[in-house]
Write a structure and sequence with these properties.
heterodimer; A: about 350 residues; mainly alpha; ABC transporter involved in vitamin B12 uptake, BtuC; globular; B: about 375 residues; three-stranded antiparallel beta sheet; 13 helices; about 70% helix; Membrane protein (chain B); transmembrane helix (chain B)
């Protein structure tokens, strides 16, 4: 869906000196692109409802989608596939936006909730809640996932920026890996020592959309909405910050407030996504880069595109996992890693200073 | 090479004491040179290296003793020795020779293998973080081993071969990815972390394809475990170590020259490209065989060589102390998880993973203090 055939540098598009007609044309083209992305998202969602382990012909899928008649097909679609698709939509939006926000706030092209230990922090929160506090409901998990995500991201950033050296992307990635190693070992130990908790944790396990009901969607929805609104409202300030804090201040941005709100939004989105579906890696890393390829560095467009492209990836990966894994399925987190890791490596190989 | 070995032949010490090695002063060759009478064999012996090595050997003996005598059934040293000699009572014989000994031998050999693998690789990449567990070789070996376990239900030997193929393939991929940018710096590490993440996804996928019982076992295996290790495991890793460690020690001299830089090494008469390939192969093979037996164990390969190096303050990669340090660390960690969390069966990888992450954090903080990234 190459609707933008313009240079990814974004030069000229947002240049106030560019002729107004050209700017209007670019804006129109990008809006059209958003509409196309929305169309693709709807199609993917329909595909996700239609495709599965049980073959249901498209015509009957379409009819029971609107008129549930109590048949097997209707039960499968309404009790299994629709919640799953909605969850994918929500989780995708949250992950894509939090990744784009992270990359903008840290000016780090390699930022991703999974790589920077935020997802595992959320997992650890859930493990602690289950094993030590006997929390059993999804609503309970969410809070602990938030706390875990917050603590882990703060720790990783402190480590990455420790000492006199600046917090380079590379150092943050290594700090993320270190924190992840500790948390992973801790989680494994706790779960292996407590079979009861392991049994509960297993259904929450590695990034999957299966086996969740609509309840979890309702639980995390408010958090995701607050995070989304906060993130989108921050977009203009993020543009001003792209040149560095000092210039941002000169342009009238309250830098501290923007950073704090941005971090809060990342934690809300990331915590909600992880609490709902378990840790799903690489979505937050890959999607903003794809979006940047289409619309360049303008954060307003970038966030909007990330928000639509990420659920396409998540729901698509989930559907793909059901197709290639039939009669079982491949968890969505595994599929996204397969799609995302090569891109991560390609980015590392290029290592041009990122245009953020 | 600063391995503290005594020359086998009657030796006379000659003078050759260098300046004491300070933390800030440039590295100077230190120690005493020991030569045979004809001068055909000469060795540099450092007091510090000798002391550290001796302490490690003592620690090994202590850990061995404690592992074999304590546990659910207390045995006296005499009972253990009799059982080892093959004339102990039935119970003691079973506990020592079937339960405790193979596990201990496995731990010691895997620890030594991982540590030497890490020492060689860190030296080749000139990077403290360039160890097989961080840059994905261990995960690659695990992938190869898992394919054999899950898909082919292979024997121990086949699993080891699978792990070797997986590790080598990963090494080739990582090498090609960083090719042109040099094997140095954080770039290699970040690339390795990316490759690692991908392989972790592959491993999780392989586990989901396994049956439920297999999946539980594989899950414990994936974090690195020494539980239920019998003589077939111990012998497999023992043979690998017996073959590969001497190879590594034999290449150590070239390794310390390659560490000085390609030009220097070439001027000193070392075929850099060939040495590098040989060393890389030995390093990957050691990590792969260790992983085949226990699963991907974190931290030993990363930390053991560096801790040994810091203790000895040696300028070069001291492989012998590193091997001893690795053996002490893994056997010690295993002893700890067996006794502290008893009766629960915690995989040893949970202990090494925790310590390893913390060590990595400490490394990051101190490196940034020096501002040398």
């Amino acid at each position: 869906m190459l609707v933008e055939a313009q240079a990814p540098s974004g030069s000229g598009a947002d240049d106030p000196a560019a002729p107004p007609t050209r700017r209007a044309a670019v804006a129109a083209l990008r809006s059209l692109g958003l509409l196309v992305a929305l169309g693709v998202l709807v199609l993917i969602a329909l595909l996700s409802v239609w495709v599965g382990t049980r073959d249901i012909p498209f015509t009957s899928t379409w009819s029971v989608l609107w008129r549930p008649d109590g048949s097997d097909a209707a039960v499968i679609i309404h009790d299994y596939r629709i919640p799953r698709t909605l969850l994918g939509l929500l989780v995708g939006m949250a992950l894509g936006l939090s990744g784009a926000l992270m990359q903008a706030l840290t000016r780090n092209p390699l930022a991703d909730p999974g790589l920077l230990g935020v997802s595992l922090g959320a997992s650890t929160g859930v493990v602690v809640a289950i094993a030590f506090l006997g929390v059993g409901s999804a609503l309970g998990y969410v809070w602990f996932a938030f706390i875990g995500a917050a603590v882990a991201s703060v720790v990783v950033h402190l480590l990455g920026s420790a000492g006199r050296a600046p917090a380079t992307p590379d150092r943050l990635v290594v700090a993320g890996a270190a924190v992840t190693a500790v948390l992973y070992a801790f989680n494994s130990a706790v779960l292996l020592l407590d079979p009861r908790a392991f049994d509960k944790f297993r259904f929450w396990t590695v990034g999957a959309l299966a086996g969740r009901d609509l309840g979890i969607v309702q639980v995390v929805l408010p958090f995701v909405v607050v995070g989304l609104v906060t993130a989108l409202a921050l977009a203009p300030s993020l543009n001003a910050l792209a040149m560095g804090d000092q210039l941002g201040r000169a342009l009238g941005v309250n830098v501290g407030r923007t950073r704090a709100l941005g971090a809060l939004s990342v934690m809300l989105l990331c915590g909600a996504a992880t609490a709902a579906a378990g840790p799903i890696g690489f979505v937050g890393l890959v999607v903003p880069h794809v979006a940047r390829f289409f619309v360049g560095p303008d954060q307003r467009w970038l966030l909007a595109y990330s928000m639509l492209l990420a659920p396409i990836l998540v729901i698509g990966a989930d559907t793909l996992g059901r197709v290639i894994g039939a009669p079982g399925e491949v968890q969505v987190g595994i599929v996204t890693a397969f799609l995302g890791a090569p891109l991560f490596l390609a980015l590392c190989r290029r290592r041009k200073p990122a245009t953020l | 090479m600063s391995a503290a070995r005594k020359a086998g032949a009657p030796a006379t010490a000659t003078t050759g004491r260098g300046a004491p090695v300070g933390a800030t002063k440039p590295r100077v060759v230190s120690g005493r040179v020991v030569r045979t009478r004809g001068g055909r064999v000469s060795l540099r012996v450092q007091g510090r290296a000798l002391a550290v090595t001796s302490v490690l050997v003592v620690a090994l003996v202590v850990i061995t003793g404690v592992t074999l005598t304590t546990g659910d059934f207390e045995l006296s040293v005499g009972e253990v020795l009799r059982a080892l000699a093959g004339n102990g009572s039935g119970g003691a014989d079973f506990i020592v020779n079937t339960l405790r000994m193979p596990r201990l031998v496995t731990a010691l050999c895997v620890g030594a293998a991982l540590a030497v693998s890490g020492a060689v690789l860190q030296s080749l990449t000139r990077n403290a973080l360039g160890s097989p567990d961080i840059i994905g070789f261990t995960n690659g070996s695990a992938t190869g081993a898992l394919v054999v376990i899950v898909v082919f239900h292979g024997s121990m030997t086949q699993i080891a071969v699978g792990a070797l193929i997986g590790g080598l393939a990963t090494a080739v991929v990582v090498y090609l990815l960083v090719f042109g940018g040099g094997m140095q710096g954080f770039r290699l590490v970040v690339m390795g972390i990316g490759v690692s993440a991908l392989l972790l996804a592959v491993n999780s996928y392989l586990i989901t394809r396994a049956s439920w019982q297999e999946a539980l076992e594989a899950q414990a295996w994936l974090i690195g475990s020494l539980g239920n290790r019998g003589w077939d495991h111990a012998i497999a890793i023992g043979v690998a170590v017996a073959v590969l460690l001497p190879l590594a020690f034999g290449l150590a001299g070239r390794l310390s020259m390659v560490e000085m830089g390609d030009d220097t090494a070439t001027a000193l008469g070392v075929d850099v490209a060939r040495s590098r390939v040989a060393l890389l192969f030995v390093s990957v093979a050691l990590a792969a065989f260790g992983t085949a037996v226990t699963g991907p164990i974190w931290f030993i390969a990363l930390a053991a060589p560096q801790v040994a190096r810091k203790l000895i303050r040696s300028p070069g990669p001291g492989l012998v102390p590193a091997a001893l340090m690795g053996a002490v660390m893994l056997a010690g960690s295993d002893l700890a998880v067996q006794r502290v969390f008893s009766p629960a069966l915690l995989p040893v990888g949970t202990a090494t993973g925790t310590i390893g992450g913390l060590y990595l954090i400490w490394l990051l903080v101190t490196e940034s203090r020096k501002s040398r990234v």
